[in-house]
Amino acid sequence: MALSSDTSKTMPPGARRAPPCTLVIFGAHGDLTKRLLMPALYNLVGNGLLDDGFRIIGVDRVDSTTAQWRDGLADMMQSFTRNPNAEFHPASINAQQWDWLAQRLEYVQADFSDADALRQLGAKLPGNAIFYLAIPSRFFATVVETLGTAGVVTQKEGVFRRVVIEKPFGSDLASAQELNRRVLSVLEESQVFRIDHFLGKETVQNILAMRFGNLIFEPLWRNEYVDHVEITAAETIGVEQRGAFYEPTGALRDMVPNHLFQLFAMVAMEPPNTFDAESVRNAKEQLFEAVTPIDPKDAVRGQYAAGTVEGKPMVGYRESPGVAPHSNTETYVALKLHVDNWRWAGVPFYLRTGKGLGGRRTEVVVQFRKPPMLMFRETETEELPPNRIILNIQPAQGLTVELGAKKPGPEMDLTNVQARFRYEDVFAKSPNVGYETLLYDCLMGDETLFQRADNIEAAWKAVDPVLQAWAKDTAGPELYEAGTTGPRGADELLHRDGRAWYPLDRA
Ligand code: BG6
């Protein structure tokens, strides 16, 4: 069935339809497929961006038929309409749009590491194919090697074969290097799409637009004017049912060398020559190479104990399913990064992320130095508040600038005011879950928003001394009560530099 004019007329201006392709999803019954990939594909159908020759083959070990898989996904899509907390929460599911996708679904029951099964699967793939590894990370290398043995990732003239690898990509520098080595013994770098879903967020992509699409920020974006930068990803959710994954992982591995480093790259990298994949990834690499490996003294870890989050009781991390009763896994981390380059020498970058905190906020705060003299010292104004630019990533989306302004009245009294840009005030609300751009870019062969092998390794290299020190340190993380702003050690990290975090618990 061709895309109806109804659905295709929403194609974004200037966009091109992706080439025909079979998307093979390993982990067809998994959470990621249901929660994010299917809604993203549905949204791409709605935008008319998928070709008539697009198909999806779901692969999993679970005993199931195509009809059962498809019906299960259809139910799931409907359930999102009733769940305001789902990443995808449309008012209704458009039947025509869903049918377009549903009739292109096929389920294959197979073991990912069975070369014969993958060979048979290969016979179903006449042309372009993308293999999406939505499976636990311990299978990544084996599955790629098996795809190689089965001969299904060999590209021919005019036919692409690509592999999408989810995070976590390695668990330290050595394992990331080993995984890259094994993957790149089968595939060309240009066939590998290492996902970091933060790069699918509009507000993250917008950081580059703000920085390089406007002249007013760039002259100030350097050590002459910037005092320090804070990058925060605070979550209210706890570990919930993910204890088995989280126990050997912890907040540092889960969030820092991937998501927070991507935010850091967007904020701190030099302007790339163009917006093509290699220029952008070269600019990131140049930045990451300038990061001094983190001194363990500049890293703080915490773990949430029982508390109350947003009015609801939360059990302590150690009481969660799949978690050891004396676990030393950190659910919070704060770090200081030094960047040894011309632009940023002397400007600390403070990174923090944690679960079970009092508020949900992902944001970047660029705090500027104070004016060189206090011109208003004879007046009511004793101390001028510093200027800040706050890049609101989520749930608030936009940009806030904090400025000093004169309070109306006879005295020269300055106060802090905010100038705000909010997405919701300017743009229509999008149903997108963030994977749309990533899937579309992969179909188009655009790797700009995907991580190159060297970028991944450079990020692990920066955090590796901390991982090693923590593995040896039996003292463990500082406990913090769930629903608060995190461990006291994180505040001390900044206090000892004469600074304080931009408050998490503000209105
Ligand atoms: C995932 C982590 O990669 O990112 C989770 O494994 C974390 O622990 C999540 O909650 C945060 O992503 P988002 O898009 O909800 O901010």
From TrEMBL:
Residues bound to NADP(+) are 61, 111-112, 167
What is a GO molecular function of this protein?
Answer: glucose-6-phosphate dehydrogenase activity
Cite the Gene3D superfamilies for this sequence. Dihydrodipicolinate Reductase, domain 2 (3.30.360.10), NAD(P)-binding Rossmann-like Domain (3.40.50.720)
Glucose-6-phosphate dehydrogenase NAD-binding domain: residues covered:
24-206
> Where do the Glucose-6-phosphate dehydrogenase C-terminal domain residues begin and end?
208-501
What are the binding positions for substrate in this chain?
197, 201, 235, 254, 355
Q: What is its EC number?
A: 1.1.1.49
Q: What class of enzyme is it?
A: oxidoreductase
Q: Which residues form the active site?
A: 259 (proton acceptor)
- What is one cellular component GO term in this UniProt entry? cytosol
Catalysis: reaction(s): D-glucose 6-phosphate + NADP(+) = 6-phospho-D-glucono-1,5-lactone + NADPH + H(+)
Query: Pfam families per the record?
Result: G6PD_C (PF02781), G6PD_N (PF00479)
Q: Name one GO biological process term.
A: glucose metabolic process
Look up the record and name the pathway of this protein.
Carbohydrate degradation; pentose phosphate pathway; D-ribulose 5-phosphate from D-glucose 6-phosphate (oxidative stage): step 1/3
This protein's UniProt keywords = Carbohydrate metabolism, Glucose metabolism, NADP, Oxidoreductase
Q: What does this protein do?
A: Catalyzes the oxidation of glucose 6-phosphate to 6-phosphogluconolactone.
Annotated family? Belongs to the glucose-6-phosphate dehydrogenase family.
- What's this protein's name? Glucose-6-phosphate 1-dehydrogenase
